[in-house]
Specification:
alpha+beta, 5-stranded antiparallel sheet, 126 residues, Structural Genomics Hypothetical 15.5 Kd Protein In mrcA-pckA Intergenic Region, Chain A
Length: 126
């Protein structure tokens, strides 16, 4: 059996695992079920089919990754081959200077007071 499916359409969970976007296929399926994977703008179930040209958005650890399928795979391949199977269009992260600063408490200062908790929540946007 060949590792490539060529221009055929394959399941998004299997493809994301095969191109090493997830460490296990079950993790890819769980991310789909949790709504962290979108195919062409729509929430994807694990069995959603993707083919060349499909845009896949994956949210991992609070960061969103945007990839476009170039080639479909059936089985997991090495990292050098995997990067050739998709085009990474993820925007670069914000520079550290532009990221908002969150207040830090001194170590050992104890629990924040109710007023301090409200200020922290207001700064975080809750």
């Amino acid at each position: 059996m060949s590792t490539t499916a060529g221009d055929a359409r394959v399941r998004v969970d299997a493809w994301a695992w095969a191109v090493r976007l997830f460490p296990t296929r079950s993790a890819a399926g769980a991310a789909c079920r949790a709504g962290h994977v979108r195919v062409d703008g729509d929430r994807a179930k694990p069995a959603t089919l993707v083919g060349p040209g499909a845009e896949v958005r994956i949210r991992v650890r609070g960061q969103e990754k945007l990839v476009v399928v170039r080639r479909t795979l059936v089985k997991r391949v090495g990292a050098a081959v995997a990067v050739e199977c998709y085009e990474d269009r993820t925007p670069p992260p914000l520079p550290r200077a532009e990221m908002p600063l969150l207040p830090r408490r001194d170590r050992g200062a104890g629990r924040p007071t109710k007023k301090e908790r409200r200020e922290i929540e207001r700064l975080r946007g809750h």
